[in-house]
Amino acid sequence: MSFYGNQFYGSRNFTHDTHINNGKITIKEKGFKEIVTVVNRQVTEIKIIKNGSYTYWLKYGEFEKERKNGITHKILRFKNTTGKGKDGLCVRKDQKLEGYKGTCYTFFANGRLMWQKFAYPNGRVGYYARSNAKEIIAVRPDGTKLFKFEGNKFNFRGNGYGEPFIYNGGSYFEQNQKWNLSKIKCSYIFYDKRGRVKDKGQYENNQRVGEWTEKYRVYFFISGVKVNKKLFEMPSEKVDPQRVLNEPNAQARSMLLKKIGFERVVKKCKGVVIHTDRKRKNSIIDFPIKTDEKHYRMNDQYTDKEDEYDQCHLRILQVTCTTTKSKHFLRVPALPDWNTSEKARQGTFNGFTAKAKNLKFERET
Question: Which domains does the chain have, with CATH numbers?
């Protein structure tokens, strides 16, 4: 029995006006032929054929295959007797790895990437990476080194389309997160054809740290903040703690606090711990500062004395990340409504609105 058109493609269950219980339906279009197998009014198999060879073949409950240029490049295997839940996904796709042509093989099981391999036309394996790998080394088609990755819990998401893992998740196109494959710790090195380091970088807790190289130029980062070589190499004990309090940029100030040590800044700059949250390991510290800036009142509900105190004090909220345990330093108003760690922390969410209700989280990460 033959039909023209595409009314059955992609649909497993027929509508009320379908009168075929069992059999095969052939749908012909220009250059293509689609064969649909029906059992008990349900589609059990679909084949799309071009020039005598299939380009797509689906058997519900068993597998789904796609072909390109006569070569199978994608296979989905299903759990036995069901059309639900993928038991394994194998993607074979022609790709380029840093400009070199090859084929990328990716295998998933139960929704999790198990391994990936990139092979060149000459048969040499560019790299082989497993889900639990802590080191991945790649070479060029001639065997010279191409790149090296080291890290913890690499994130290989995004490879369902068969792309090499270093381009996953779109991070390849985000300059500030280039090749960041681990939220915990990751480093990479790319070599040129002469074996020189062309690009190098490392992340800790999603922040750039240490010495970086981008197109042979060297940069330095401390806690995600770019700094000059002198500050990067300067021993922490030689950094003036007062410089921290005078730093107007919050991100740079946080970086300096981490470099020289918060305790040292508190001691040298006469900081006073006014509250500590032992459960969350957060605390608030007040520092006296000198300023010639014009007085600015946050709100008319505060007295002149309270506003004057706010102007002449730098109040820092030290918070601890529940996941990475890393410490972060945030400036908060030196005013009575935010004189405890939790009140100040809530203020960072609600814009320090005194009458705002506290936010409650089911889970903090």
Answer: 92-227 (3.90.930), 240-350 (no CATH)
Assigned token pair, 240: 């003036």
Measured CA distances, 362 to 5, 218, 327 (Å): 52, 43, 22
pLDDT of res. 174 = 55
The larger pLDDT score, comparing residue 353 to residue 119, is at 119
Q: List the end-to-end C-alpha distance of the chain, in Å, as a whole number.
A: 59
CA angle at 111 for the pair 189 and 162, rounded to the nearest 5°: 50
pLDDT at res. 126: 97
Contact 318, 332 (CB under 8 A): no
The pLDDT of residue 357 is above 80: yes
pLDDT of residue 291: 64
Tokens linked to 252: 């740079």
Residues 226 and 209: their CA atoms lie apart, in Å, by 9
- Cβ-Cβ contacts under 8 Å for 322 (sequence gap 6 or more): 280, 364, 365
User: For 302-318, b where at least 16 C-beta lie within 10 A, e where not — what string?
Assistant: beeebbebbbebbbbbb
**Mean of per-residue pLDDT scores for the chain:** 79
Q: Are 334 and 286 in contact (CB under 8 A)?
A: yes
Confidence label for 12 from pLDDT (cuts 50, 70 and 90): very low
* 21, two tokens: 């219980």
Tokens of 315: 């109040």
3-state helix, strand, coil in the chain (%, to 5): 20, 45, 40
Q: Is-contact 337 343, C-beta < 8 A?
A: yes
CA atoms within 13 Å, Cβ hemisphere of 258: 20
- Record the tokens describing residue 345, joined without a space: 């922390």
Q: Strand, coil or helix: what is 210?
A: strand
Please answer whether residues 141 and 123 qualify as being in contact, where contact means their C-beta atoms are separated by less than 8 angstroms. Answer: no
Does residue 46 sit in helix, strand or coil?
Answer: strand
Three-state DSSP at 37 gives strand
Q: Which two tokens stand for residue 98?
A: 């840093």
Distance separating alpha carbons of residues 107 and 129, to the nearest angstrom: 11
